[in-house]
């Protein structure tokens, strides 16, 4: 069986966040200087801890994000100053502390009409990232968190088949089981096309979702991502059972 996932285990959320931040900085240090690179961010508690660790380590190492363009794996359809906004989270914990120029921040417009915002975001991503022969933009790195139900980005396990087949980079997700109800998310196709996908599995209540993702590919969204990609890196502070 091809091993299409690489699992790293940690003793808790903080060591995990510190390790992912280090890996991210090491990864960027190896990226060819002067070229554009693209990273898609998630939201939630995992991202909060990661961004905090990232800002601290970036300052300590004196290493910035030169040439890195920031996109999102998903965004809630709320204004950018809303406390539920994934943009606001990154702005406060990462972009402002590290003085990331606005020209390299490609915000999903949560305040706009969702379909228009998703279309605009897809075009914007395709204008920055290289596009593969299938016409999918290739992000350098997608950072995902695993939800208790096995979702990643805003791709929830109960999504209908057409959603899993969505071919554009971004899609609208309505009636999300995790509030707020309407979101914009990278599609499975876009996550599958990314050069690297890292999934943070941290915090209580993730063990069953992780187990199901590793043993039954179509039972969770993470399982589908793992099945769709050559390899996926999983950083977990949750015991891997079975
Ligand atoms: C979102 C996130 C979502 C998150 C997971 C994990 O917008 O809600 O992008 O996909 O990453 O739900 O969230 P926690 O880290 O808070 O468990």
Overview features:
Rossmann fold; 6-stranded parallel beta sheet; 242 residues; 36% helix; alpha/beta; single chain; 3-stranded antiparallel beta sheet; binds 6-phosphogluconic acid; globular
Secondary-structure element string: EHEHEEHHEHEEHEHHE
Helix amount, in percent?
25-40%
Our estimate of the beta-strand percent is 15-25%
Gyration radius over CA:
16 Å
Strand order of the largest sheet: 1-9-8-5-2-3
Distance between the termini: 16 Å
Q: Classify the fold: give the CATH topology.
A: Rossmann fold
Name the ligand types: 6-phosphogluconic acid
Chain-averaged pLDDT: 96
Q: Low-confidence parts, pLDDT < 50 over ≥5 residues?
A: none
* Helix segment tally: 8
> What characterizes the major β-sheet?
6 strands, parallel
Q: Indicate the CATH class.
A: Alpha Beta
> Structural class of the secondary structure composition?
alpha/beta
Which CATH architecture would you pick? Answer: 3-Layer(aba) Sandwich
Query: What is the global morphology?
Result: globular
Tell me how many strands there are. 9
Give the count of structural domains: 1
